[in-house]
Prior knowledge:
Elements: H1 2-26, E1 31-39, E2 51-52, E3 54-58, E4 65-69, H2 76-88, E5 90-91, E6 94-96, E7 99-101, E8 107-108, E9 110-113, E10 117-119, H3 128-136, H4 142-147, E11 149-160, E12 165-169, E13 178-185, E14 190-192, E15 195-199, E16 202-206, H5 210-213, H6 216-219, E17 220-227, E18 231-234, E19 237-251, H7 271-281, E20 290-295, H8 305-310, H9 317-328, E21 332-339, E22 356-359, E23 367-368, H10 375-385, E24 387-390, E25 392-394, E26 402-409, E27 415-429
Parallel strand pairs: 1-2, 20-25, 23-26
Antiparallel strand pairs: 1-17, 3-4, 3-10, 5-9, 6-7, 8-12, 9-11, 11-19, 12-18, 13-17, 13-19, 14-19, 15-16, 15-18, 20-27, 21-27, 22-24, 26-27
Helix pairs in contact: 1-7, 1-9
The protein binds 2-oxoglutaric acid and fe (ii) ion (FE2).
Amino acid sequence: MAHTTKTTARLRDSISEALGSFVKSRSSTFACGGVVPLIPGGDAVSGSNASTALSLRWDSPTGMGKLSFPVKAATEEQKKSLLKLADDCQPASFGFKGQDVLDESYRKATKMDRSAFSIDFCPYELGIVDTIAQVLLPNAGGNAGTKGVKAELYKLNIYAAPSGFFKPHVDTPRSDTQFGSLVVSLPCHHEGGQLIVRHAEHSVTFDWGASGSGEKVNTSAQWAAFYSDCEHEVLEVTEGHRITLTYNLYYTLGVGDLAGNSPAMDVKSLPLYKKIYEALADAEFMADGGYLGICCQHAYAHSTPEGVKSLPAILKGSDMAVYSIFLALGLDISVRPILSLEDNWFFDFYDINDQNYVGDKLRQIKLTEAGNYEDEDSNEILREFGGKWLKVNWLTHPTSKNVGFVHMTYGNEPGINHVYTYAALFVVIPPAAERLVPKE
Ligand SMILES: O=C(O)CCC(=O)C(=O)O
Ligand SMILES: [Fe+2]
């Protein structure tokens, strides 16, 4: 028996290590970007990823505005248009605790709503949406991938010298199928204004200013796309105007279940697949069966109606890849809410002994009346949550939490308490004798 336990621990650690380096290598794909050359005055060749010069037109109290890009050393006419555009934009707010806030110490930029302007720039035509689908939905390759992303124009923004900037923040998703943002920098001379995007301990810098991209700043549109849960910031613009279009990126479901439908990736070729395969083939690995848990690396709105409906299809990056690997091994894998042990006071009443309270399925936030500081009420909270205490062999550590569950509290003041949950991939490992390991 002791021997079996040792084998299980050894193999679990080796999967965990392989998973760690797999996630690390995949997590550098949380952002991608590119360049679209403009052909001034000419026609873009049909089918090429180049665009003609761009014209921006907008509503203005002083008559319609028009500005043609690229804006190099601006002509007198362009200078006038640029000033008019800057005048016609409003200060840009940002979301804070559900409110739109204007605060120039946090964001100094201006905006124009999409209803007030039009521009002949189409990210679909230029292959940008296809690229995003390929890179940020790595498991939904082939046709499913290219059909799976919708880019919806959101705003035009200007970050202007001497000090336009936007401090680190994460974008507020407009719906639960939004998975990311796309920023397009229109060719207009500027310096600074680097966009830095971070995920876990990685970061990517997109420098579209003259020093960072040279001539490109005047001859090409440049773009970046990243997942919604990645923190990002715009450094100070020190010269000129940094003019951007922002788009919200959505998954479009209904083109086949994206999860597990992975023609573009051969999961069997991945070292992580081999490690798990070898462990399963070893009769001493979790000989009596049990559960493996992998905390999701990205954040999902897993306790909202949309999130409940669209997971696992909308898993991102490495989460989707790990999901596909376990699925390919014929294992029962699902996304489950796990009660967070540190944030929930009522765990104090339990002798949890290394166990986790695992939800039987994803559920929406719930409001219950249970919740006195007594055992019985804590039990009721757990019953409402719907799950079981289980011993889980964790392969990773938790990363982000959502409020999963809300209940009343009684004290000197009535109130509510938030119960935090996090989303994890939960794998059922059958006992060794019942395991059907697919042929290599
Ligand atoms: O302009 C950029 O590069 C990013 C802007 C941004 O973060 C936002 O609009 O939320
Ligand atoms: Fe943002």
